[in-house]
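One such given next:
>
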Amino acid sequence: MSKKPVWIDTDAGVDDAVALLTAVYLEREGLLEIRGVSAVCGNAKLERTFENARNVLCLAGREEIPVFPGAGKPLLVELSTAAYVHGEDGLGGAVIPPSPAGRESMPAWDALYRSARECAGELELILLGPETNAAIALRKYPDLPKYLKRILIMGGAEVGGNKTPAAEYNIWADPHGAQTVFKSGIPVIMCGLDVTMQAQLLPEELQEIESYDSRGCRLFKESTGSAIELYRQSGLEGFFAHDACPVLYAAYPEMFQGEPSGVFVETRGSITRGKTVCDRITDIKFGVRNAIVVHGVDRDWFSRVILAALKAV
């Protein structure tokens, strides 16, 4: 079985780091081929997310994977980071060695387009943060859709939100960028809160991670404390590895449950900004099925793979 070529776009925060380590693990398992990584503002400012992505890949022994700088602000709204979850540095205060790799200067959208053409329509784009870089690429290169096989996103929710009662953070942070992606004509796999809130590492699994001294487990322990405390204050146990969901879906779609849906983004509402409006369970249909809305995952399997990925680094 040939590896699936993927491009990962990330606002490299705490769960993004887990997702990147998982992607490297899946690459070593022969399932994915990471063609490139791009950084976008979101969880933290671009200068931090760019360095975080580089440094996490170096920690994983894959500093040769190029990381390209992307957008430092959303398309039309003001930047609002998630420092209250990820810290100002994006990694919860964890300190990891700086990558010795040279810094790429090509903009993310140009690098993505180049890679998509090289892959001749087989490249899968995984979006772990706000979708600004992808939107800029789609606007700059109108023919990009024919070179991307599908887009897998961590973002949105059929029901509820975590930034507001209506919206998940990644979509809320740049609703216009997200709308560009959903209207692109490229098949979308939406791993929103409906499934990512099932991607839970339980307290006993966190204790197991703490018992190992791999670089990946140490990074997890040092970066996730604030996020775990926030979950605890909200009445939730453990840690939720949101961003690992689309990465694992790319390799193991059979381990997830989802259904076709029409999905579009509210860009004008004041209290509904960033709402992903899904017609999967409604009587009034959009007339198009532009996405698979993922709403289930085998949690036990998911946690085992995450633990294996953290131990492998």
